[in-house]
Amino acid sequence: MRKNFKQWLANKSLLTALVLALAVVVSPFAQAADISPERQKALIHQLIQDCGSCHGLTMKGGLGPALRPQDLEDKDSESLADIILEGVPGTPMPPWDFEISPGEALWLVKIMKEGTFNAQ
Amino acid sequence: MPNRFLDLKKFWLFLIPALLLAATIGGAHAGELRGTGDLGIIIERAASRIQIIETTTQTKLFTVEGMGDLSHASVVYSRDARYAFVFGRDGGLTKVDILTGTIVKRVVQGGNSIGGAISQDGRLVAVSNYEPGGVKVFSSDTLELVADIPAVYDGDMLSKTVGLVDAPGNRFVFSLYDAGETWIADFSNGDTPKITKFKNIGKLPYDGLITPDARYYIAGLFGEDGLSLLDLWHPEKGMRRILDGYGRGEEPLPVYKMPHLEGWAEASGTLFLPAIGRHEVLVLAMNDWKEIGRIPVHGQPVFAMARPDGRQVWVNFAHPKNDVLQVIDVETRQIVKTMTPGRAILHMEFTPRGEQIWVSVRDRDVVEVYDTATMEKIAELPADKPSGIFLTARANKTGL
Q1: What is the pLDDT of residues B271-301, one digit of tens each?
Q2: Residue of chain A whose Cα is closest to the Cα of B384
Q3: Are B354 and B308 in contact (CB under 8 A)?
Q4: Strand order of the sheet with strand B325-329?
Q5: What is the tens place of the pLDDT at every residue in A47-95?
Q6: Which of B10, B238, B267, B360 has the smallest set of CB atoms within 10 Å of its CB?
Q7: Is ipTM beyond 0.85?
Q8: Is the Cβ–Cβ distance between B381 and B336 less than 8 Å?
């Protein structure tokens, strides 16, 4: 059941990756530059506070896994963005697509991989 | 008349040395003698700092700096309620003298800790760790390591540990999130614990509580619609499922912050618990552990805290509804008040007899104090991104 799900996720990730990749090429909406500074600030606040309640405020891990640069470097950005948007059913990881857009999810993955936000 | 004069002279003879003595003692301890019964701690998460507060006149007494990473920090108290043991996310365990506002000792004991407990006799402090998964036990006196209990399962896997509480008989009880187990570590025969393991208690236990009578341990399950119950009077009977299928097979709603089971309400033999994946508070009968009701609330409840007399239950919520506070009247099981103090209401704590409740409102940088009879705000204290609030009455409660 769990395995099937992972497979499903992998397939789905591939699809989303394609769509996202297309979106990145075709549409400027998914570009970080298009996320306003206020929205970027709000997203960082959310990353630290809301995501931090499970992943640790410094992304060192908690009930959810660690999300530091070294934890994410080998992982595909689009799949990670997909997890953020869709969640992982059967685990506490909830879907965030009700308030985070695909472009914003990718941007979150980017700053998590770079580790370029201040834990406050 | 002369007699009187003599008395007066005697009086001064006594008073002057007494005053001098008082001044010396007072000077040395930077304050007058006082008890700790109305004291408590507010965690200022972002600032690595705690405030020591006093609830009689709602004032701050001290701030203590240099506490490390205080995200998700929690506190237990020594049995004399003078020392606080603060558990930080960075694995820091700090012993603080709340009468002087100073750090007595600080050790970094693990990579990523989630909370702790103190033994019935007050001798041992246990810390629950996510990384490396397990429980470490320290001397409350020296903070030296007494026992290390790695949460090993499936051969060589380490599980995150959650829901750590103390139980009568110098026992600690906790659950293994990844393994779906509950363990008892019994220290009644000294520093080498006897471990009893309960396997297959259910998927992804995320927190645990001990009932106010210190008899039952309940683990909340994330992966399943139900809870797992252990009778600590009869551990040989094993754990059993209660409230099985309380979700009635409906798809659970997403949970944006994990609920805590700590704030049970025991009123007329009932227990109030936050449901998981549904916007409800569950009501259980404690005699047969059956559901006797559920109360629809504003969002995913995080804490459902009972006033010490059991008449009210105050509930806060997960993101994105964490700006609301609701009060349930236990008798009618109705919501009698809904308030919006501000974004990120993270924690609540009643004064020991329940006339006040202290509420941290993180994004407004304040702790609010309410009169629980009128449900009106009576004070507000500035605090830098406040999270947990822990009053000394916890010193005398099993499981806290």
Answers
A1: 999 999 999 999 999 999 999 999 999 999 9
A2: A120
A3: yes
A4: B301-306, B312-317, B325-329, B334-339
A5: 998 999 899 888 988 899 999 999 999 999 999 999 999 999 989 999 9
A6: B10
A7: no
A8: no
Task: Name the residue among B399, B397, B385 with its Cα closest to residue B72.
Answer: B385
Closest Cα in chain B to A86:
B254
pTM: 0.87
Using beta carbons and an 8 Å cutoff, which residues of A are at the interface with B?
Answer: 49-50, 52-54, 56-58, 60-63, 87, 90-92, 94-95, 99, 120
**Shortest CA distance from B112: residue in chain A:** A62
Residue type, B36: T
> Between β-strands B49-54 and B145-150, what pairing exists: parallel, antiparallel or unpaired?
unpaired
Environment class of A37 (CB within 10 Å of its CB; exposed 0-12, middle 13-18, buried 19+): exposed
Structure token pair of residue B368 = 């609010």
Q: Which residues contact B10 (CB under 8 A, 6 or more apart)?
A: none
Q: Give the alpha-carbon dihedral of B85, B359, B393, B39, to 10 degrees.
A: 70
Packing angle of the helix pair A77-86, A2-26 (nearest 10 deg)? 110
Residue B90 vs residues A32, B87, B284, B346: alpha-carbon distances, Å: 32, 9, 36, 20
Cβ separation of B160 and A63 shorter than 8 Å? yes
